[in-house]
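Record type: ASSEMBLY
Status: queued
Input:
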Amino acid sequence: MGLRLLCVTAHPDDECFAFGGALALAAERGVETSVICLTDGQAGSYRGSASSPQELGELRRAEFAASCKILGVHHHELLDFQDGQLEFANLSEMAAKLVERIRRIRPHAIITFGGDGGLNTHADHTVASAATTAAFHWAGSPKRYPALGDLYQPQRLYYLTYNFFVDGRPRHIPAPWTLTLDIRSVFLCKQDAMRAHTSQTPLMERARPIFEQHGQEEHYALAASIVPQPATQSTDMFEGVTE
Ligand SMILES: [Zn+2]
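Status: finished
Output:
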């Protein structure tokens, strides 16, 4: 048996820049981890050697696979939604794809962005959060997509959040954190995974001061739990979760 964690992201590189600590820590303790990324990142601002959106998508697909391997991710998958256009995508279709995968992977906990869209307030991140939230609540419901596998209800939904603002950037509106992960033991792993995204090297340079100042921790907000409970501070994503 054992515990399973699913991470839903919008772009190749989110899995390490945003969630790398949580994924590496989980893998280290024997949790089976999965990452589903909604797009192949072909609208990225940093394009490496790619001469077309398709080429960038291919390049980033390979970088995503390399990064997931470094983070010890057991299953990774890119879906074919259009990068930069998630706000115009069909929410029901997106939620259905996630429900089908949640029922198949059967994660105990799910992590994704919060409604703020993360540090860079990317609309794709906000939509990933919305679709994942719907899928979390619908995967266990007999009223939703009954043909898409056996019902399954994950126990915890967490949003990534932050305990700081970045100077000179538009301020995101973060959810209050309830979970603080000390990621110092896996920080080198997270950094190696970030380096695997060679097309995003300029981004890594820009992000370096942020990681130097704030890179010891990742913060998450418990957004939903199958057991009613007050918001309390925790350092363990799986505290109270039953296998
Ligand atoms: Zn992203």
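Annotation: The CA atoms of residues 116 and 172 lie 6 Å apart.
Annotation: The chain has a mean pLDDT of 95.
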